[in-house]
Amino acid sequence: MFQKFLGGKTAIVTGSNSGIGLGVAHRLAMAGADIVLNSFTDRDEDHALAESLAREHGVAVRYIGADMSKGDECRALIERAGRCDILVNNAGIQHVAPIPDFPAEKWDAIIAINLSSAFHTTAAALPLMRAAGWGRIVNIASAHGLTASAFKSAYVAAKHGIIGLSKVTALETAREPITCNAVCPGYVLTPLVEAQIPDTMKEYGMDRDEVIQKVMLERQPSKEFVTVEQLGDTTAFLCSDAAAQITGTTISVDGGWTAM
């Protein structure tokens, strides 16, 4: 699959200095795309990561810091990149609490980073895609964009919103060579999730396998984590010519979670 079919394209991936975003960036780079990495920090290691990715895949890679909670910085990210053939809206945060106890500032931050940021980057990217005559927008949603869990009001609301935004974007670009889709992962094994396992083992008095099977993957029928490589492959497919007529839809990568 990973011929250089994205050679000459530039992909901006938000929230991409670790986890899902970094996995997606690797796969798009393997397919030949130049990459713009992003997070809210601006550290030497962020730029070193970009240099490492460039060496590994033989493409141009830049790191541009931008706070995805701020609309003007979201738009500035696209403007600073100068080109955006592929936009992957991945940045996200989480907080868990019952609605009466959910801190208002956490709600505002989750809606801003998980939903509003995608609106701002899309608004800035579409004119560049139209000028180039081609574009792909892939919004990383979640199984929680299609279903719900208690205590995750802001996250679920934001991910449902991302799916709605994807559909509207697809309708507004339907007569153009631009597509927009949402990818809906289930539980993904990222460094952040991996780091949670020891504490969860202590909390429940379980061994590692029990925590994974009975706690983390309780709602995932396959009882296997989604990998960042699988999400990267899915994103790359949506950027390929084979997916030119796939737009305004969701692709679930969730081990059967939303089939229940």
UniProtKB/TrEMBL annotation:
<protein>
    <submittedName>
        <fullName>D-beta-hydroxybutyrate dehydrogenase</fullName>
        <ecNumber>1.1.1.30</ecNumber>
    </submittedName>
</protein>
<keyword id="KW-0560">Oxidoreductase</keyword>
<dbReference type="InterPro" id="IPR050259">
    <property type="entry name" value="SDR"/>
</dbReference>
<dbReference type="GO" id="GO:0003858">
    <property type="term" value="F:3-hydroxybutyrate dehydrogenase activity"/>
</dbReference>
<dbReference type="InterPro" id="IPR002347">
    <property type="entry name" value="SDR_fam"/>
</dbReference>
<dbReference type="InterPro" id="IPR020904">
    <property type="entry name" value="Sc_DH/Rdtase_CS"/>
</dbReference>
<dbReference type="InterPro" id="IPR011294">
    <property type="entry name" value="3-OHbutyrate_DH"/>
</dbReference>
<dbReference type="GO" id="GO:0032787">
    <property type="term" value="P:monocarboxylic acid metabolic process"/>
</dbReference>
<comment type="similarity">
    <text>Belongs to the short-chain dehydrogenases/reductases (SDR) family.</text>
</comment>
<dbReference type="InterPro" id="IPR036291">
    <property type="entry name" value="NAD(P)-bd_dom_sf"/>
</dbReference>
<dbReference type="Pfam" id="PF13561">
    <property type="entry name" value="adh_short_C2"/>
</dbReference>
